[in-house]
Amino acid sequence: MKDLQIIFRFFIAALLTGITLLSCSSESATGNDDPSQKTNDILVDSMASTGTIALFKNLAELAGQNVLFGHQDDTAYGVNWWAQPDRSDVKAVCGDYPAVYGWDLGGIHNTKNLDGVDFEYMKMLIREAYARGGINTISMHLDNPKTGGDAWDNTPAVSSILPGGPHHQKYLSTIDLIAAFLKDLKSGGEAIPVIFRPYHEHNHNWPWWGRSACPVEEYNALWRMTIDYLTGDHDIHHLLFAISPQEIGSEADYLARYPGDNFVDILGLDDYRLYNKANIEKLGKSLSITATLAESRGKIAALTEVGLDQIPIDDWWTAYLLPAIQYNAQSRKIAWALVWRNFSVNHHFAPYPGHNSASDFVKFFNHPLTLFQSDLPAMYTGE
Ligand code: BMA
Hints:
Layout: H1 2-24, H2 50-62, E1 67-72, E2 77-78, E3 81-82, H3 89-94, E4 100-104, H4 119-131, E5 135-139, H5 158-161, H6 168-183, E6 186-187, E7 190-191, E8 194-197, H7 216-233, E9 239-243, H8 251-255, E10 266-271, H9 278-296, E11 300-306, H10 316-325, E12 336-339, H11 358-366, E13 370-371
Parallel strand pairs: 1-4, 1-12, 1-13, 4-5, 5-8, 8-9, 9-10, 10-11, 11-12
Antiparallel strand pairs: 2-3, 6-7
The protein binds beta-D-mannopyranose.
Beta-D-mannopyranose (BMA) is lined by residues 104, 114-115, 141, 340-341.
């Protein structure tokens, strides 16, 4: 066992050296002219904080051995409760918090996000999750910047917010609000590392940054502009950048809308097709494709969104989700799998006490592959 561990550590060290060498061969997206401020050669942000670099390396080390469980808005609310200290439906069912906590900055102009979570309260929950050693990931269902409609208003808008466009400055002021939120995520003066996942599901048609509303060049320009603005103008250095197309079928499919390796740290996948057994293979293959692409680029893969609304299948966790993740040696290399929010009895993706899938979820929790909050090693330290 010990020998195996030594061999494994050697393998990981070799992998990380490989990652460094691979990344050295290309300019970092946010490369700074002043080499003294450079902290790393492996991330999008060449000035990323020590904790952010450690988070990436620790996730890379865990991937392949374990899969972290994540849940959107886990501690903010659940089925039949709202904003209660330390409460979590996941914890109520299995005794532990998730390892990954998802949040969303849609509605950043208001005091509450699009789903009613107060932004100041969300900051507090992010700090609490970090204090427990958990991992925070942030998506953004931002309103359509041209029409003022919601994220699902797919009236073309991106060309109008790119440099030179009539809504460019106004859009940057929205990103200023995002930046202010991110800068406020501190613990003892140190910025809390966050996995930032903007403009998700961009190969589908529903959002204004989606396929029908914006050509690939515009999407890539939007992605790069946002990242450059946050890391450059705002000097924010505690982010890992995750991209997440939805339900892809091939490598070409995945890369059809992709801003480039210099702008992506984590290759995610969102997939909501796991409602029958035939689709276990579909998800397994998609994960395998995603993980293989990530591996060849020195990046991390993740199942950034997955789930079945209301989970009407009693053994969904161990007979659907686990087999999809364990489909092959590649698919199981994803670092985490995050299910969506628990809003109500009619809209939830994790079980709550008394739920028909609760006992199967406990089996999923006890499975050696899955990691929850208390299973996590220190994620923000290490060489
Ligand atoms: C969707 C639903 C919506 C919600 C949105 C953003 O999948 O849960 O109710 O507003 O995500 O969280």
